[in-house]
């Protein structure tokens, strides 16, 4: 028995205008890149704010959320890039995986700096 955590059923495709098809090969890294982008934004807000609150979260909680989202984006993007067949432009999601990896690493660094600043301030 095998378990597929991020697998979608075969044949699932979303057609958009202009004949562009968004299949599972592009969906997973795109979602990972979006999560990593949210991690960069939340981590950046936690780093930039001098107040104790970042929206509904405290600064420390926002830094942890940014760190987790950055790590998830980096890991999923790296795994997808390592397993992608073909190169850029083949429809396998390699560009999204690279974007997720880069944004995930950036989010991890920014949120880690925010978390270190929170610990130093206590």
Tell me about this structure.
With 122 residues, this protein is mostly helical. It has one domain (23-121). The protein is 64% helix and 8% strand. The protein has 3 helices and 4 strands; from the N terminus they run E-E-H-E-E-H-H. Helix 1 runs parallel beside helix 3 (94-121) and helix 2 (59-83) packs antiparallel against helix 3 (94-121). The protein starts with 12 loop residues before the first strand and ends with a helix. The mean pLDDT is 77.
Measure the end-to-end span: 49 Å
Q: Strand order across the biggest sheet?
A: 1-2
Let me know the largest β-sheet: 2 strands, antiparallel
Fraction of residues in helix: 55-70%
Low-confidence stretches: none
Overall number of strands: 4
Number of domains: 1
Write out key terms for the chains shown:
122 residues, two-stranded antiparallel sheet, two-stranded antiparallel ribbon, 4 strands, elongated
Outline the fold blueprint:
Blueprint: E1 13-15, E2 21-23, H1 24-48, E3 53-54, E4 57-58, H2 59-83, H3 94-121
Antiparallel strand pairs: 1-2, 3-4
Provide a quick synopsis of the model.
The chain has about 120 residues and is mainly alpha-helical.
